[in-house]
Amino acid sequence: MGVLGIGCFSDQFSEYSQLGRARVRKTWLTLRRVIAVAELIGLPRAAVVVQANAASQSGPFRSDLEPIDEDPYSEQNQKAEVWESICAIDRITAMMCSLPIATVNFPLPVRPIIDMNGEVILQSFIHRLFNIASRVLELDDIHTQKKSIPELINIVMATDQELQTLAQAPAKSWWQEHGSQMSKEALFQYWHSYFTIRTHLRLALAYEHDQRFLYNFMTCFSACQEHAKRYISLRPLLPAGFFASSIVDLQAFTAIVFLLLATDESKTASSSVASRQNMNAQQTRGLVDQAVETMELAAKRTA
């Protein structure tokens, strides 16, 4: 399998998955084989060279770097592009199926998110988001390790800062709902709020027993509200047979359960804590009811 073959796999993977026929185990094994072949034919090396030369253009001349053809259609650039696609697929598969990331040692390149016209470069946004996703997945392992509370908080807050920085890059108007048409932007905005939930969830659930986690609780609660709202608008727009529909539902279910737990806790909390949480239990319940209704309608549509 050469570069062209692996490139075709990247395209076919998306089509195959969208038909809803991809099984987790088969997909995981196929992806691992592709990654192994890609490493054998030097795709990671080509990506490293391209990134290093791109970085050197803004710095002093370095004679130790391999020369690179500036033609975007050159073999080296094509290899780098294919490898980036493989890394992106690996991360999104790991995120959706809770699988280990095989390309964790090859972070996706960090490029400007906003172009000269002030428009969002979606690929750059996705690369940043998937790099953060790999750290969010690592948090599950970190929570099982015997780390001190301050260490855990520092790790979580570092990931939270990355998510905030990414959220602040596009204009506020970019984050608004996209109406009645499905868009790639809406899906990745949905996942951004989910990663925020996952980042803070463990500490937020422990807030009742440790007041140091107030920020995590509040951030998780706000992210769950946003996530539920995005789910209500996004889910009806997903095409029938969309490969990630069940994952989208499960992610929304996570937000729904946390909102229910949070509103129940606010009833028994002291008045000072409840006021700081600034919760409207009735409004939150209404949002949860809408999300559940959306989920039920989606289930009937696919039945």
Largest sheet: none
Order of helices and strands: HHHHHHHHHHH
Strands, total number: 0
Structural class: mainly alpha
The total of helices stands at 11
Q: Into how many domains do the coordinates divide?
A: 2
Helix content: 55-70%
Describe the SSE topology.
Elements: H1 3-18, H2 24-40, H3 43-56, H4 75-97, H5 122-144, H6 149-168, H7 184-205, H8 214-234, H9 245-268, H10 271-277, H11 281-302
Structure write-up:
- By secondary structure, the chain is mainly α.
- It has two domains: 1-104, no CATH class; 117-303.
- It is 69% helix and 0% strand.
- Helix 6 runs antiparallel to helix 7 (184-205).
- The chain starts with a helix and ends with a helix.
- Residues 8-22 and 61-65 have low confidence and may be disordered.
Features of the shown structure:
69% helix, 2 domains, mainly alpha
What's the quick description here?
This protein is mainly α. Helix content is 69%, strand content 0%.
